[in-house]
Specification:
This protein has one domain. A hairpin with an 8-residue loop joins strand 1 and strand 2. A two-stranded antiparallel sheet has the order 1-2. Strands 3-4 form a two-stranded antiparallel ribbon. It is mainly beta and about 60 residues long.
């Protein structure tokens, strides 16, 4: 997944960076809360905190074990 970060202007919006995240990393332990580095011109431009919850179809298979 590619997350693009934009500034918030009243007249125009400009891209201020992006980060790429492996979808499989969002499923670890049925979700993750982690910081991801935002890059701009191949340099770190900041970080973004992302929280996910992974809910597989059919419910939590680990709870049934």
């Amino acid at each position: 997944m590619t997350l693009r970060v934009w500034d918030q202007d009243l007249t125009t919006s400009d891209a201020v960076g992006f980060t790429k995240i492996k979808m499989s990393s969002l499923m670890i332990n049925l979700g993750v809360e982690d910081w991801f580095t935002v890059m701009y011109d191949n340099k770190p431009a900041g970080e973004i905190l992302l929280s996910t919850t992974f809910e597989p179809k059919g419910g939590d298979q680990y709870a049934k074990m």
